[in-house]
Amino acid sequence: MITDVLTAVALYFAIQDFNKVVFKKQKLLLELDQYAPDVSELIQTPKEMHYIPLKVALFYLLNPYTVLSCVAKSTCAINNTLIAFFILATIKGSAFLSAIFLALATYQSLYPITLFVPGLLYLLQRQYIPVKMKSRAFWIFSWEYAMMYMGSLVVIICLSFFLLSSWDFIPAVYGFMYPESPSHPDLCREEVIPGCPAMTPSSRENKEMFEHFSLFFVCVFQINVFFYTIPLAIKLKEHPIFFMFIQIAIISIFKSYPTVGDVALYMAFFPVWNHLYRFLRNIFVLACIIIVCSLLFPVLWHLWIYAGSANSNFFYAITLTFNVGQILGTCYAPSTLLRMNVIQPILQGVHGLWGERKTGSTGQCDRVSVVPGAQIWCSEGSFLGKVLSKCVGSNWVLDLKPWGRERERMEGGK
Amino acid sequence: MGLLSDPVRRRALARLVLRLNAPLCLLSYVAGIAWFLALAFPPLTQRTYMSENAMGSTMVEEQFVGGERARVFARDFAAYRRKSGALPVAWLERTMRSVGLEVYTQSFSRKLPFPDETHERYMVSGTNVYGILRALRAASTESLVLTVPCGPDSTNSQAVGLLLALAAHFRGQIYWAKDIIFLVTEHDLLGTEAWLEAYHDVNVTGMQSSFLQGRAGAIQAAVALELSSDVVTSLDVIVEGLNGQLPNLDLLNLFQTFCQKGGLLCTLQGKLQPQDWTSLDGPLQGLQTLLLMVLRQASGRSHGPHGLFLRYGVEALTLRGINSFRQYKYDLVAVGKALEGMFRKLNHLLERLHQSFFFYLLPALSRFVSIGLYMPAAGFLLLVLGLKALELWMQLHEAGVGPEEGGGSPGPSSSLLSAQGVGLASLVAPLLISQAVGLALYILPVLGQHVATQHFPVSESEAVVLTLLAIYAAGLALPHNTHRVVTTQAPDRGWMALKLVALIYLALQLGCITLTNFSLGFLLAATMVPAAVLTKPHGPRPLYAALLVLTSPAAVLLGSLFLWRELQEMPLSLAEGWQLFLSALAQGVLEHHTYGALLFPLLALGLYPCWLLFWNVLFWK
Fold it and tell me: Does the pLDDT value for residue A342 go beyond 80?
């Protein structure tokens, strides 16, 4: 309960700060007059911005998943708090605190180690250090950050060693995440609490059948969490906070004992990018999958545990479906942002183009209105039309429609 | 994924869904119903088979001969019972001890939320008597239960006699590896519930009962026995338990094996098994049995004491002796032998019954339909809701976002945003109001019974039923109420959004219900889906209204009562049907409070508000 509130507060301040940065950038660009007139839809107004941190906090606190994990007294609330503080520290630009909180989060569940990269990227961006292999400042800062992180991690682990005076806790805590390890007590099969729908890649029955492949299974299932960090880091270099969001989502999907509390954490970030949601596809299908699965969890769990009539496979199937829903969602999110990235420079370019064209002899003007469903009005043969169709390709629902004289001509023809 | 992300194919798909929506919905609905009707026919019904190894391979020899002894016990029991007017606890204790059992009693009392007129009881207090036969070969970690429920009148005394005779016989055998509990409960199901709660040391229904002195390990299986005559013509087996739970199919197979072995005639839902499955007659008769089973299971009531055991993960069934005008009759020895055989086989169990099916439908005793085969029927019906919701979503999306409407104007999306805001705001009121009515329907009747009896000349249970009906009918006046609260600017979008929400809500509820209790889910889907999909505020409104009213949960209940009696070949007249409907309502509320049956809260809190949303859509202005 307290940790949940702390998480919400941390998220509130973090997002507030983040928004200030975004807003500053936006204002700068606006002052530079770089946006086309029609993109006003996509520019977040100060009023909207003002409510976003509040929305984030409320999204976290009122999320049924948060409530569930709070009721179940799951430890993932603590983990969420640590991650939230890590985000706060990162956004505030305090490398040291950020490293400490990240180390604490890692200490608790190992997976947040992947958040190291977005954290580093954001801090670099904040310090205006370019991410270049040749730049010395980049290497120095990365080294410092990594040292701070490793140092605090080692300190924490040593502290726990002094507390227990044995190293047993390492296999007990981290080995637990690998379903094949001897310390794994088949928890997921026997007594899963509602706040913790366990997804076990290899359950007891499979264990006997696939004994030979156990190592392979462990690799395949565990690698997913870490696998996407590098490609995402390359692709989302400019958007470290978004990267962080995606990474948290990936952790919550692929970690070996996912809980609904993890889902709540990344769902809290939705309002931050709410201007992007009009570009997100299949919201209906995705939302239905998530809602249906969330309702079926307790039903199937009841059938399995209380009624004894359905078995764990039913429940396992529904966790799989839930994850498929989440995966689809997280796959669409980056592509949405990337599409925005493609459009934005074009939009910024359009303004100049527009002015130029207006004075042109043809009297043709290109007009871009980016609205839901993405209509881009421009004359077919125009430069902008070509650029757009080249840049965006079929990935973007692009309607190139004749505009200006051509359009009048066509309509007159009809 | 590729299909969904490629814009061209996506658009084609969308167009397909939009253009072919009506035929697809119709096709899906017809397919669902047809699939269900086809369930009774051979490719979909399979022969039952024993899955449990421990019960399959070994044969046992039944040696029970205590028929005469059972009759004597029964006569004595009936005599003592008549004399004391209640369960003759002392006599039972004495007799059980004399046949060599460890005997304990448990007293319980329960004040019902309102007087039960069908059973004529309000303040109930009684005593359960049970004797434990300790197994010689094991350490009291597992047990089997043979239970006989005793009602207020002196029926079932033959069952008590048979129970005592069996106990005496079992006592002499040396092969028992599980303890056997012989349980005689007073006030039939209430006593069983009290005993089960005390045995598992839980209290879920507010029953006051004394602590159990003796226990016998985890109960592996239970058989409940109801016999009211010295001879029977057939044994009827009842499987449907509380909230539509069913025992493992192996237990039923076991019963059937011993019926066949002893040449006993056994029936399901009071119907004989059809012999000939190749011609049309057999499956048609099977379909009748299947429908009866669906109706019974959908009621969510426990149709025998076994139903309460199922909730505790104990496989159980009830055997009811029927004495009809058939010529060939069996005496208690035949029944006793079948029971002895079953117990000896159950004694062989190494683990809980889990090998066979838990989800099945039975068109006959020797045939079953498994979950994989009947689920598509409900799936098709739910698909209709999904298709319609998808269509509405696309229409909503296109209406607001569509390029045609947006045209060249700079800010079509700002209007969309405000429209969405209005749409959502206008949804809140109907949703809240209908949920509130549902809540009132759930809480008020029982809470307000005393107020009602003070002001109107009705008894408590009448008051409950009439309040139920009054609130139910009052809910129909809802659209006018919400209309004053809501001021909408986009009339079409408003009802579409509401219908979309209602459709998804309905689909979710039906989906969850179908998973736990297929019969209820299917019955509700088959009736509610067409009206829900058709409803809109344009077109022939009176027709839609009539259709909606006919498919409202209460009307479905009334209809199922008529169908049920029709299938039992005891057709109801309208007045009788109405009386039965009223008593069914009272029973439904009572079962929820006494046993924790979930049908009433489900209808009151889930489906009725959802149905009100459709009613709201219909009268949207």
Answer: no
Question: CB distance B413–A371 less than 8 Å?
Answer: yes
Q: How many CB pairs under 8 A join A and B?
A: 78
C-alpha to C-alpha distance for A67 and A22, rounded to whole angstroms:
31
B412 and A331: CB-CB below 8 Å?
no
pLDDT category of residue B164 using cuts at 50, 70 and 90: very high
State how far the Cα of B600 lies from the Cα of B606, in Å rounded to an integer.
Answer: 10
d(CA B316, CA B245): 10
Contacts 24+ apart (CB under 8 A), B56-60: B58/B345, B58/B348, B60/B341, B60/B344, B60/B345
Task: Give me A290's structure tokens.
Answer: 């998530």
* Chain B residue with minimum CA distance to A402: B408
- Given an 8 Å threshold on Cβ–Cβ distance, is A373 in contact with B402? yes
Q: How much is the pTM? A: 0.81
**If you average pLDDT over every residue of chain B, what do you get?**
84
Would you call A397 an interface residue with chain B, using a CB distance cutoff of 8 Å? yes
Do the Cβ atoms of B315 and B255 come closer than 8 Å? no
| CB-based burial label for B210 (10 Å; 0-12, 13-18, 19+) | middle
Closest-CA distance, A389 to chain B, in angstroms, reads 14
Element spanning B370, H or E: strand B367-370
Closest residue by Cα to residue A6 from A80, A101, A64: A80
How close is the nearest chain B Cα to the Cα of A292, in Å? 6
Residue-wise pLDDT for B574-614, tens only, equals 888 888 898 888 888 888 988 888 899 999 999 999 998 88
Backbone φ and ψ for A238, nearest 5 degrees, come out as: -80, -10
**Which domains does chain B show, CATH number per domain?**
62-364 (3.40.630.10), 424-619 (no CATH)
- Which of A284, A328, A395 has the CB atom closest to B1's CB atom? A328
Query: What b/e sequence results for B463-486 when a residue is b if at least 16 CB atoms lie within 10 Å of its CB, and e otherwise?
Result: bbbbbbbebbeebbebbebbbeeb
Chain-centre distance of CA B182, in angstroms? Answer: 27
Cβ of A295 under 8 Å from any chain B Cβ?
yes
Q: Which helix (H) or strand (E) holds A392?
A: helix A383-392
A397 and B7 within 8 Å at the Cβ level: the answer is yes
In this prediction, residue A354 carries a pLDDT of 38
Q: How far is B7 from chain A (nearest CA, A)?
A: 6
How many other CB atoms sit within 10 Å of the CB of residue A384? 23
- Side chain identity at B608, as an amino acid letter? Y
Q: Do the Cβ atoms of B406 and A375 come within 8 Å?
A: yes
- Does the CA dihedral B269-B270-B275-B276 come out positive or negative? negative
User: If contacts are CB pairs under 8 Å, which of residues 12-71 in chain A contact chain B?
Assistant: 37-38, 41
For residue A144 the two structure tokens come to 């410092």
Under the banding of pLDDT at 50, 70 and 90, the label for residue A210 is low
Please answer yes or no on whether B313 and A306 come within 8 Å at the CB atom.
yes
Please say whether the beta carbons of B224 and B305 come within 8 A: yes
Does the pLDDT value for residue A206 go beyond 90?
A: no
How far apart (Å, rounded) are the C-alpha atoms in residues A152 and B418? Answer: 50
Residue B416: pLDDT over 70 = no
Which among B359, B400, B504 has the least Cβ separation from residue A309? B359
> Chain B contact for A310, CB < 8 A?
yes
Q: What interface predicted TM-score (ipTM) does this complex get?
A: 0.79
Confidence class of residue B154 from pLDDT cuts 50, 70 and 90? low
Max avg pLDDT among A191-200, A234-243, A339-348, B283-292: B283-292
Question: Structure tokens of A286?
Answer: 């995705």
What does the pLDDT read at residue A365?
Answer: 37
| A283 part of contact set with chain B, CB < 8 Å | no
Amino acid at B406: G
